[in-house]
Write a sequence for this structure.
């Protein structure tokens, strides 16, 4: 239940200029001191305000008042009005002059001055009169804007963001078209804009609402389903459901096409940026496909590969030798295969052969200017580096240079002649376009990935489309190699992938353990097994991972993260901590980044450890988090995109491997249980895999396929006529991911 407090701001403890988050000391009207927190502008310390919100008792910081809204009480008393007019907001007006103004004009002083500055003629000269009136108008406009925006039931954070962006024009812009905010203000989507539109009387069948709804459907379809386009029937069905109406959308669609917000192609509708991005990928990939094979000395290659096999004590199969030699001469090639099929062995041999043939010393730092190894996530790049003994970094790290002045990522060009990209199934169309655009025309590209894993979290299905086009040489590795043949983890993964799972596979072995039980039992078993693993020397951060496909529920990610934190972080409820929302972080916690943060150089899915929590010069808590080799600092207001990571989603685990994996399979996950999901989860385990729950659901999941994503990349690669790619693209085209502003929680399951 909301409460109210009145008082004067005495001091500001903290303010985040980027998002407007404020911590301040308030002296209440009964002379008590109270800490208030929330999103509001710098308020005048000479004015009494009434704050509406919730009184809370923080475990560490004590009593705090969380502000939901505020109201200025300047006009309630003469003394308050004098304090206001003599405040720092109004240059040249001291307490005595302010008293004279109030004595002359009374409690209507502000209103009268705004109407006519000459009412101050008996007191002030013309310059001061005009200056005071101008400042009063600015302050009154700001205040009225905030008050009016409160009527739209927006959070103080959003209100602050709107006013920062639009200033005194905010209300005019909103009244003209509230859906403009969708395109121009970060974190305001259709739902918030539609709420404002309803309050100002814009009906659901208004053309502005309809156009915004169509755009929203295309965005959320790309973000939540990965589909790049929808046809008219699907667009109508989804938009009707969103608006709770049945309409003909052809006029709105024609407007959006003429405004170049969406593109129509053969009856399918794309967001403009998605359409452009996919065409750019196709155009640039085709450039590599059409290049001649490298004219290399095949006898020398064969001899060098034989020497490498002897040095590494590896007996390459005939298929592996052919694959390595093929990759050496093709401008672009793909290596795909499941666990145990020798992808890493092949890449290692290819890297060594390339270096030997081109006389590159891989131990020399200069080799990094000739060869680039990369993967979509930090953990995948780290694993690549450890196995191949050569520098490997994330794709973003290779491409991006953060521009502090413009607060944006600038994408550069890769100078290397050999580009090897691992875990390519994780790459969405936006990252693919940036990568392929950065590679110079004479380079060689080796794309590595498991086509049977889950598709990328972001839009598109790039690896699968490249393979399906049959335009790029593909090296498929199907044979399980000798060292992996005894692995029941790999055997189970293959049976799931082949949709050949029977009860015979549900026999526990040393490396795969099956356990039937309900949620409460599984929770207890996971805790006990983790305890036993730690006692045997396994590390909770590096070696052990629980994978769950959804966030909510009795056995969801959030509940289990808290359980593991409570049981295994020795600092739980003892050491220093920072709370954000319903999560509290302690030193030693395992955490995961949920969205790309270019400024911090941390990417979606990066996992780190809270090394230290300390107070900055303002006395506010800061988390020092180590992500592999990168140390990043988070203030409390930065924690929106962070989560505990003792338990993560299967999507977030892509590109990583763990010695021990726990995989609960529950009926509450039923809507998410697909073959690709289970296969991806199983293949994360290196040494031990615990599958717990209902094994009938595991059989069910193995026969449920993820719906094929709707993309056109394969078709575009098959087109023979290059002229189709000669599009007239405006210079102002925004080729950024249109879903990038969505919250990481918008599509969590």
């Amino acid at each position: 239940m909301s409460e109210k407090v009145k008082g004067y701001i005495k001091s500001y403890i903290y303010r985040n200029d980027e998002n407007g988050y404020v911590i301040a000391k308030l002296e209440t009207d009964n002379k008590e001191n109270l800490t208030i927190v929330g999103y509001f502008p710098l308020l005048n310390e000479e004015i009494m305000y009434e704050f509406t919100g919730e009184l809370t008792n923080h475990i560490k910081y004590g009593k705090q008042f969380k502000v939901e809204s505020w109201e200025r009480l300047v006009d309630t008393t003469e003394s308050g009005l004098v304090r206001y007019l003599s405040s720092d907001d109004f240059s040249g007006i001291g307490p005595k002059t302010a008293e004279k103004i109030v004595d002359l004009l009374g409690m209507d002083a502000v209103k009268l001055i705004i109407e006519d500055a000459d009412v101050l003629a008996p007191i002030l000269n013309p310059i001061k009169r005009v200056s005071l009136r101008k400042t009063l108008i600015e302050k009154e406009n700001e205040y009225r804007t905030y008050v009016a925006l409160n009527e739209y039931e927006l959070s103080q954070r959003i209100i602050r963001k709107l006013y920062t962006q639009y200033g005194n024009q905010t209300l005019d812009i909103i009244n003209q078209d509230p859906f403009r905010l969708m395109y121009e203000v970060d974190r305001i989507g259709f739902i918030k804009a539609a709420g404002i539109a309803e309050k100002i009387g814009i009906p659901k069948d208004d053309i502005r609402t309809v156009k915004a709804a169509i755009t929203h459907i295309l965005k959320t379809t790309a973000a939540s389903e990965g589909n790049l386009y929808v046809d008219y029937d699907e667009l109508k069905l989804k938009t009707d459901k969103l608006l709770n109406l049945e309409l003909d959308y052809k006029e709105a669609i024609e407007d959006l096409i003429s405004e170049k917000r969406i593109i129509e192609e053969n009856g399918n509708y794309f967001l403009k940026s998605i359409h452009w991005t996919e065409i750019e990928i196709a155009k640039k990939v085709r450039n590599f496909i059409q290049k001649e094979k490298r004219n290399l000395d095949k006898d020398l290659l064969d001899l060098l590969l034989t020497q490498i096999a002897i040095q590494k004590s590896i007996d390459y199969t005939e298929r592996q030798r052919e694959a390595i030699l093929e990759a050496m001469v093709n401008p672009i090639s793909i290596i795909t295969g499941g666990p145990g099929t020798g992808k890493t062995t092949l890449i290692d041999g290819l890297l060594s052969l390339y270096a030997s043939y081109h006389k590159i010393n891989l131990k020399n730092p200069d080799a990094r200017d000739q060869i680039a190894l990369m993967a979509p996530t930090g953990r995948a790049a780290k694993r690549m580096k450890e196995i191949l003994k050569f520098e490997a970094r994330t794709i973003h790290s290779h491409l991006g240079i953060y521009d502090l002045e413009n607060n944006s990522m600038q994408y550069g060009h890769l100078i290397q002649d050999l580009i090897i990209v691992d875990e390519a199934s994780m790459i969405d169309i936006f990252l693919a376009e940036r990568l392929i655009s950065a590679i110079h025309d004479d380079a060689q590209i080796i794309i590595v990935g498991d086509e049977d894993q889950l598709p990328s979290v972001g839009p598109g299905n790039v690896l699968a489309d490249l393979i399906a086009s049959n335009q790029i040489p593909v090296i498929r590795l199907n044979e399980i190699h000798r060292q992996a043949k005894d692995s029941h983890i790999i055997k189970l993964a293959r049976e799931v992938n082949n949709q050949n799972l029977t009860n015979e596979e549900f026999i526990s072995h040393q490396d795969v353990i099956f356990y039937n039980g309900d949620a409460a039992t599984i929770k207890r078993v996971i805790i006990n097994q983790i305890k036993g693993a730690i006692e045997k020397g396994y590390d909770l951060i590096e070696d052990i991972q629980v994978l769950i496909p959804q966030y909510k529920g009795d056995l969801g990610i959030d509940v289990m993260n808290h359980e593991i934190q409570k049981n295994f972080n020795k600092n739980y409820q003892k050491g220093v901590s920072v709370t954000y929302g319903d999560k509290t972080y302690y030193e030693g916690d395992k955490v995961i980044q949920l969205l790309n943060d270019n400024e911090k150089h941390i990417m979606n899915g990066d996992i780190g450890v809270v090394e230290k929590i300390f107070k900055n010069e303002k006395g506010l808590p800061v988390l020092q988090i180590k992500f592999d080799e990168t140390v990043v600092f988070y203030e409390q207001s930065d924690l929106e995109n962070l989560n505990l990571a003792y338990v993560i989603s299967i999507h977030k685990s892509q590109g990583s491997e763990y010695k021990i994996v726990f995989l609960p399979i529950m009926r509450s996950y039923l809507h998410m249980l697909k073959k690709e999901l289970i296969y991806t989860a199983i293949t994360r385990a290196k040494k031990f895999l615990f599958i717990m729950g209902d094994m009938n659901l595991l059989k069910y999941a193995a026969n449920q396929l993820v719906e094929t994503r709707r993309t056109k990349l394969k078709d575009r690669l098959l087109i023979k006529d290059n002229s189709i790619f000669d599009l007239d693209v405006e210079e102002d085209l925004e080729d950024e991911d249109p879903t990038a502003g969505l919250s990481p929680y918008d599509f969590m399951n």
In short: The chain has 26 helices and 28 strands. The radius of gyration is 30 Å. The longest helix spans residues 126-150.
